[in-house]
Write a structure and sequence with these properties.
There is one protein chain. With 79 residues, this protein is mostly helical. The protein has one domain. The chain is built from one helix and no strands. The longest helix has 77 residues.
Length: 79
């Protein structure tokens, strides 16, 4: 009788060990996924910042060209 109880206990312990092992593997996979996603977020932020800088630069260039165009149009009206 006690041998059967011991076998059931041993089976439950082994099942618990297997479950813990699987959960540890899943945790490692999730950590790796999290690290990859963090890197992607950092890259996206960097790309966004670069695009914002480029956009600001292009807006400045546009304003310079508009000012030049207005100046030329003003000179043409004077003539």
């Amino acid at each position: 009788m006690s041998f059967e109880v011991f076998e059931k206990l041993e089976a439950k312990v082994q099942q618990a060990i297997d479950t813990i092992t699987l959960l540890q593997m899943e945790i490692e996979e999730l950590k790796e996924t999290n690290n990859n996603l963090s890197q992607q977020v950092q890259q996206s932020q960097s790309n966004h910042e670069e695009l914002v800088r480029e956009n600001n630069s292009l807006k400045e260039q546009q304003h310079v060209w508009q000012d030049r165009l207005h100046a030329l149009l003003g000179k043409m009206e004077e003539v």
